[in-house]
Design brief:
TatD DNase, TIM Barrel, alpha/beta, TatD-type_Hydrolase, TatD-like, eight-stranded parallel β-sheet, single chain, 13 helices, 12 strands, two-stranded antiparallel ribbon
Length: 314
């Protein structure tokens, strides 16, 4: 029996780790093709490669152009918004460069969202609050002019995130708050704004996280890996929910791995998350909601197609 179909809404395939490079040093050969093959075997039929700045946009478009399973986004991550002001042609030049990617003929087929954009107050050493606020708001112009949904980031921002999204909500069609780690109150605020909720391993670390994840309405849920980060680990509260997987599912969604220093062709790299682990997130969420993984996968697939691939054949 084939695995359920998955769409990984957030995978950082432009990260050098997928080319065998860690902290600027090569640890093993480029194994991106193997990563994509493992994803395919695990039922991942579409992946959205997230872009976080201009360089990412260029790299991602080049990466996805010839692969029917890969798509991407255009935008600037909150921790990188200082790049607007450091850009040689100034903030407006940076904005126009982002807009130029959207006007590329390739983008019409391959860019499915504006983002990753939003606010991140956990890492203000990368970019101060006022700069983040200013250029988060600016990116709603991209969503409005393109008609694309938004791929949103929110970390520890109090009411600022929901205040800004509410202010601009009429300017974009759909949006997903990816890698959601908020409280029940924050979940309600996002749902009241008619946003979708993206869940990955980082969303499922603690018992409190699991209580929130269990309250995400199924018709507002999307799944992701956010690889190479956000894997589900034995120390996480979610790990116990993986015990119901069959041996076949474990082989697909939890393949054997080795440390990067002992890299072996065909195996995962320990600690580097990949799209093939989508089934782990699915099994945790299905268990929390008390339904079968197959039923949940079908609902999530429908949600994701509606937002990012409207009109596409299933």
């Amino acid at each position: 029996m084939p695995p359920p179909r998955f769409i990984d809404i957030g995978i950082n395939l432009t990260d050098a780790m997928f080319r065998g490079i860690y902290h600027g040093k090569r640890a093993h050969v480029d194994d991106l093709k193997e990563v994509l093959l493992r994803a395919q075997r695990a039922g991942v039929c579409r992946m959205i490669v997230t872009s976080g700045n201009l360089d990412d946009c260029k790299t991602a478009l080049e990466l996805v152009k010839d692969d029917d399973s890969l798509y991407t986004t255009v935008g600037c991550h909150p921790t990188r918004c200082s790049e607007f002001e450091a850009f040689a042609d100034g903030p407006e030049g940076y904005f126009n460069a982002l807009k130029a990617f959207l006007n590329d003929p390739l983008a019409k087929k391959k860019v499915v969202a504006i983002g990753e954009c939003g606010l991140d107050y956990d890492r203000l050493h990368f970019c101060p609050v006022e700069t983040q606020l200013k250029y988060f708001e600016r990116q709603f112009d991209l969503a409005e002019s393109s008609g694309l949904p938004m791929f949103l980031h929110n970390r520890n921002t109090g009411e600022d995130f929901t205040r800004i999204v509410k202010k601009h909500r009429s300017r974009f069609s759909h949006g997903v708050v990816h890698s959601f780690t908020g409280t029940l109150d924050e979940l309600k605020e996002c749902l009241d704004l008619d946003l979708f909720i993206g869940i990955n391993g980082c969303s499922l670390k603690t018992e409190d996280n699991l209580k929130v994840a269990a309250k995400v309405p199924l018709d507002r849920l999307m799944l992701e890996t956010d690889g190479p980060w956000c894997d589900i680990r034995p120390t996480h509260a979610s790990f116990k929910h993986l015990s119901k997987m069959s041996k076949e599912e474990q082989e697909m969604y939890m393949p054997a791995s080795k440390k990067k220093e002992r890299f072996e062709d065909g195996l995962m790299v320990k600690g580097r998350n990949e799209p093939c682990t989508m089934g782990q997130v699915l099994h945790v969420m299905a268990d929390l909601h008390g339904i079968s993984p197959e039923e949940l996968a079908a609902q999530v697939y429908e949600n994701t197609m509606k937002v990012f691939f409207p009109g596409a054949t299933a």
